[in-house]
Amino acid sequence: MINITAPINTLGYGIASYNIIKNLFFMGEDISYFPIGTPEPPEKQDFLNSVMLRPYIPKAPSVKIWHQNDVHHHVGNGLHVAFPIFELDRFSREEVWSLSHNDRIFTCSKWASDIVKKHLNTDTAIVPLGVDTELFKQHKSSRPSTVFFNCGKWEVRKGHDILVDCFNAAFDHSDDVELWMMCENPFYNEQQQKQWVSLYKDSKLGDKIRMIPRQKTHEDVYNIMKQTDCGVFPARAEGWNLELLEMMACGKQVIATDYSAHTEFCNNNNSMLVDIKSTELANDGVWFNGQGMWGTLDSDSIEQIISHMRKVHSEKQSGSLPQNVDGICTAREFSWENSAKKFANALK
User: 191 pairs with which residues across the strands?
Assistant: First the structure.
């Protein structure tokens, strides 16, 4: 029996919560679900009606899947568990206070678990997030162009400020190559969105860069991903990176920084890794103002990204670009069913 407080929507927390609750339910777990905000499930599911707005289970564990500064409120008097998904290597005083009101803390990676252990003397467990491998399936693009892809809301943290420079440095107008950006940020106003779009479209190879609007369903996301050849994720820090794992599941090559939470599933066999040799204060003037550290994308990191992109393009154009078999195997290991099993086991 489990009390779960969490959002269900199209954002990261909402997707993770929905898939964990769904798989726990179909595993036979007795769940009482308490929504944060109005639930917006990605598909019509009758099971939600049977677990939502039920009486709470007084002695059952209470798990709150939410931001680390607001995990101190719980349901019932059983085990209190926080499940935050965070990107930086430090917690603020407020975050430590909120987290400290829990008996156990779930994290989705060893990287995150180590950070918790540095700040708190609280029991921890690693519960990796997952991917829907029935939807995100292997597919080889038939497009003649080499298509690079990035998905994730516009942020300096995700390396969007340097990705456009890497693309422009790697290729010329004569190269049959495209960069697809699906990066609308629902928290930005229209002017902020336009600034990011202009950064890309007004650049040297702007005519080879395609802006893709936010998709309504995960099936729509898959239909975009399957047309691409390589995911490029030059993130300074990630709390998990769902899209990176989804690209692996599709058999696509991926370029990713060797830092933060996605090191839980990225390695030299399934990814083209980019070295992160140091960290720096996380400061973008919008979401982060020096409250922690993130990876430094130095000149060597940028050169590696450029080199990886050129390699992918060369292999695609010569017909020798392989499917990411190791990535497909990794995605099968990190299924949502696996996430739910680890979640349930970590409550025992």
Answer: none
pLDDT of residue 42: 79
Q: Among candidates 282, 234, 242, which has minimal Cα distance to 259?
A: 234
Report CA dihedral (259, 262, 263, 266) to the nearest 10 degrees. -120
Q: Give the position of tokens 């047309």.
A: 227
The predicted model scores a pTM of: 0.95
Q: What is the DSSP letter of 322?
A: P
Q: Within 13 Å and on the Cβ side, how many CA atoms surround 197?
A: 14
- Residue count of the chain, please give it: 348
Shortest CA distance to 19 belongs to which of 36, 7, 37?
Answer: 7
Distance CA 40, CA 55 (A): 21
Question: Coil, strand, or helix at residue 46?
Answer: coil
**Per-residue exposure over 229-251, b if at least 16 CB sit within 10 Å of its own CB, e if not:** bbbbbbbbbbbbbbbbbbbbbbb
At residue 44, does pLDDT exceed 80?
A: no
d(CA 57, CA 74): 12
Q: Give strand ranges (E) for the chain.
A: 2-6, 31-35, 62-64, 80-82, 104-107, 123-126, 146-151, 177-182, 209-211, 230-233, 253-257, 272-274, 279-283, 289-295
Which residues fall within 8 angstroms of residue 190, CB to CB, at 6 or more apart?
A: none
The residues pairing with 218 across neighbouring beta strands, listed in sequence order, are none
The total of other beta-carbon atoms located within 10 Å of residue 313's CB is 22
pLDDT digits (tens, 9 = 90+) for 1-28: 999 999 999 889 999 999 999 999 999 9
Residue 314 to residue 321: CA distance in whole angstroms: 8
DSSP string of 176-218, one letter each residue: -EEEEEE---TTS-HHHHHHHHHHHHTSTTGGGEEE-PPPSSH
